[in-house]
Amino acid sequence: MKAIITVFLVFSFVTVSAQEIIRDSIYSNVLKEQRKIEIVLPDKYNPAEKYEVTYVTDGEWNTRIVAQLQRFVEIQFMPPNIIVSLPNTYANNDNYRVRDFTPYKIPDNKLTGGADNFLAFLKTEVIPYIEKKYPTKGYRTYYGGSLGGVFGLYSFFREPQLFQSYLLADPAFWWGDGYLMKMAADSLTSLPNPERTLLFTGREGKAFQYMGIKDMDSIFRAKAPAALHWKTLVYSGETHNSMIFKTVYDGLKYTYNGYMTADINYHPMSGIILKDKPFSLYCFPEEHLEVHYTTDGTEPTAASPKLTAGVSQITVPVQLTVKVLAARNEYSKMKKGTFTIGEMWHSGDKPKKALPGGLDTLNGRVAGFIELKEPGYYIFGLENAVAGTKLSLNKQVLIDCKGNTGDDAQSYIVPLDKGFYELDVTYSAAASMPKLRYVAPGKEDAVPLPADIQYHMQKNNVKK
Fold first, then answer.
1. Contact 321, 293 (CB under 8 A)
2. Residue 252 has pLDDT above 60, yes or no
């Protein structure tokens, strides 16, 4: 397994490294200069789909790095993004990032103070150009490091609608005698559009202090609104330049925290329960997911009880609602299960002609009787079932598959006394037989029905 994973990662890296960089440019009427733009499209880019966009500064250094890291994150933690990277302007051996990223002019550096123009360039020229040329959703992430981090936080306050997420690697908050710290202290409590994500990263030790990140972190801890999804990460053993790697990877995961490629599943999905008698809910979310639930019909929030991977004891008076909370609400996923308060089901006598040793298995039907050895909650499930498949117990339908289940089982809980119950599974004769599973009282694993509890009415079964 370790070798397979290594090969997969190496193959992924080679694929990413070979990604095409589309080199473009536009003339900026704001900056009065031609500006280069580098675009990297998703691996499976489809112009009929819409994408979010990651905007990257210092593109001459960062385009390939961000593209490579983003593709790794996309394996599981985020949706595909278009990358738009902006290389800097150079003139007379000067890098004009100092001009573009700094909020005001300081006496000893004539290039400083062009952040408002660069912000206008992004807002009125670059972003409209990209969103006209490519299919975008209008959701944008900003990446910047050092002075690019200064510009990122400046734009966070100055143009709160421009970006939904910010990744700031080792930002130089010391710049301008702490200009941004005063801006943060004055602006955070009345912050417009606070439902954004913001990540600072810094280096452990003295660098955390002299870069100004420690002081900025303190200001945000004291004044940031509760709706702002923000965090400071501190790394050890890194340099100012190496911070980009961890910032991009961790930052994109943080930006899309809660994103998942499949629906959240729990079992049982619905059923009949006894009043005030808890039952076991089986839920195994990925470690990076934050899953909460309610049992009163309301939508779960961060204050609602949390589901951790494994088995939880649940009492459901109205409705079970399970929600994966995501940093961006559009990626939050919710599922509801309806549970009816009922009575214990009672068994019948053993049918006179019932024979042990399996169920009657015919094309399109599995039928017979099962003998339960103890009373309690039983969970029944169907895997790999096609639409129209039904599972009935004592002629009452428990599961009615409206679509193909694949490996995501449909499940139902019912309180049963010990004894004999008639079981019937019907499915399309043209399909493969679905997998029938159950969980007995006090057990944790879904298993096939044991052979010693199965009874059939015919001596000759035809198995498909």
1. yes
2. yes
**Residue pLDDT, tens place only, 254-282:** 999 999 888 888 999 999 999 989 999 99
Pick from 403, 135, 433, 436: nearest CA to 263: 403
Two tokens, residue 32: 């009065």
Nearest to 322 by CA among 269, 286, 278: 269
Residue type, 175: W
Instruction: Name residues whose C-beta falls within 8 Å of residue 70's C-beta, 6 or more positions apart in sequence.
Output: 54, 78, 81, 83, 248, 252
- For residue 235, report the phi and psi dihedrals to the nearest 5 degrees: -110, 145
Q: What is the arithmetic mean of pLDDT over 13-21?
A: 60
d(CA 426, CA 240): 64
- 130 and 123 in contact (C-beta within 8 Å)? no
Tell me the average pLDDT of the chain.
91
Strand blocks (E) in 119-278: 136-145, 165-169, 197-203, 229-235, 266-267, 270-274
Q: Label the pairing between strands 410-416 and 270-274.
A: parallel
d(CA 366, CA 392): 10
pTM of the model: 0.84
Angle between helices 175-187 and 213-223 (to 10 degrees): 10
Taking the C-alpha atoms of residue 122 and residue 28, their distance in angstroms, rounded to an integer, is 10
* Tokens coding 207: 């660098």
Distance CA 93, CA 114 (A): 18
**Neighbouring-strand partners of residue 296:** 319
For residue 461, the model assigns a pLDDT of 53
Cα–Cα distance between 166 and 199 in angstroms, integer? 6
**pLDDT, position 308:** 86
Structure tokens at 125: 């020229």
